[in-house]
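Risk register update: the risk of archive-format incompatibility is retired. Evidence:
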Amino acid sequence: MDDETAEIELLEQNLNKTRQISQRMTSILSSFDTRLVKLEKSILPLYNSTQVLTRRSNNIESALQKIDEIASYHEGVAAEEALILRGPQPNQLSAYTEVLERMNVSVAFNSTDSRDKARLVESGAKKLIQLYTKLVAEGSSGVPPGGAEFTSVPFPASLLATLQPLVTFLRTLPLPATHPSHPAAPGIQSALKDAQKGYGDMRGAWVRKCLETFGKRVVDRAETIDGVAAGHEVGKWTENMLTVADEEYNLLLELAPLSSPAAISTTYATLISPLTNLFTSTLGSLGSLIKRNLNKNTFLALSAYSSLTSMQLRWNEVMSRRADRRENELKEGLHSIRASCLRSFPEFLADIRLAGLGKGGEIGTGLADFTISSVQYLERIPAVQDAAASALLTLGDGNWKMGEGTQIGKSKTTEVDEQTVLEHFTYDVVNATVQSLLTLSRTNKRPAFGAIFLLNNVSYLRTALIVRPRTDVPSILSRPSQELLNSNFRTAKAGYFDANFSPLLQTLIDEKDKGKSAVKEKFTRFFDLLDEVTERHVVARVLTDDPDGRATVAEEAVKLVVPSLQRFIQRNLGKEFSKNPQKYIKMPPEEVEALIKGFYGGGVGSSGAPSVPPPEKISTTLLQQAGWGW
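Archived output:
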């Protein structure tokens, strides 16, 4: 208990000490609080004064900063204005466009000086548009390509690299449609329209300049080269024009500042206007050339018609639809050329019939001009078969027989196809040619020469068109046409034999008067006529261009004459109708055979005439067997 009491007393003492310390701390803190209150009352007026001064200092600093910013802004505006007014430089295009873009944004947000900035934006835009026009002009100038073949000239790559970013920026400029409240939008749109129209004018003039030389060359060559080839050149030139127009359209899509469909169509129409004018004038020159000499230029017309017709769909797309144009120069040109084609068919037949009337005088025995022209005409039709068949179908089956009393317009185009109408026309050409030849041969005062003339010409027709054609002529000749040629060839050959060799055979016919004088007269008459035939064949050559035909005619002539002569000699062997038989039998059958073959090149000398053996060199087996040697 004593220990516990001692501890309690110790705790009480410590507690009292702690209480005393707390009281002294409370007293000290109260003293501090009193002093702080007094200090606050003393400092508060000073604090309030200092705060006002600080706020004023901040305001002064802000005002000075704003003044500096305004001064710098005005200096920047002046520099940008000077840059804009100076215009874009080749190596500073991006800096120039950035300045314009900043000013345009400022105008869009209605800054206090937006009106002045809009004026600068418009000036800067017009400077860029001037640069655009200048670059386009540089790319659309120079010397056009030369040479025999057309070569497209692409837009210079160096200028294109400069134009592409420029066009990209020009397309972002304010326009009334996109920025209705922008003060500079109307002026910029007007400048862009003028620039885009200038683009169309410059590019159109350039591509016309490139194509014009080749267009003139096509017209000039059309008078000197083959008509079919000339027609193909017309088609190639037109194809080049369409290719150039297509390339220009793609370039326009890339370089047009105003890229709306309506603006593109308008500009493209302006661009191709010089091309369509060039095409019209070139085709007009060709049309005049064709009409001036339709007979000569028929295949130029047909070939050009064929080549151009195949491009009608492409022309509609490239030259009409894209430009939103109703005009179709190709269609109009085709109408004109087709009219010439339609005229050519009846005129060609009329010329053949007219040739059959003759020009007076001897016609000779060689090939008639109209025979050669008919063959050449038919040989060349397969090269333009589609165009010829189409034109004939348009003309109407049989309507090319104008002037023959044919009732025009009875047949309908739906009744026959193109192949049939073409076969009908070629039949009429062959028939008209044969009939004219028959007429000329009958009007010849010397029938034998007329027969040679007919044989030569009909054989030439048959050989060139059926036997050994140089082109695919048989494909356009119907069976009646071929039968017509074969039949007339057989008739002409029979007429030739009849006119030239029948008189010889008639002298060898046995008559009632079989006296020696009659035999002598027959031999004399035979060899006199043979001399006439020989002289005739010296002057008039038979089938000069047909070796196989000559050989066939030679064999048939020999078979026609020589056996009759042999039989006549055999019948009169041993009758001793003359003491000097070689005076009457001037040539044995073997030599007659050689002579006849010589008519057709079998025994020709250097002059090409049949060689007649001299009487003293004649030897004949039959006469020697009969004891008539000499």
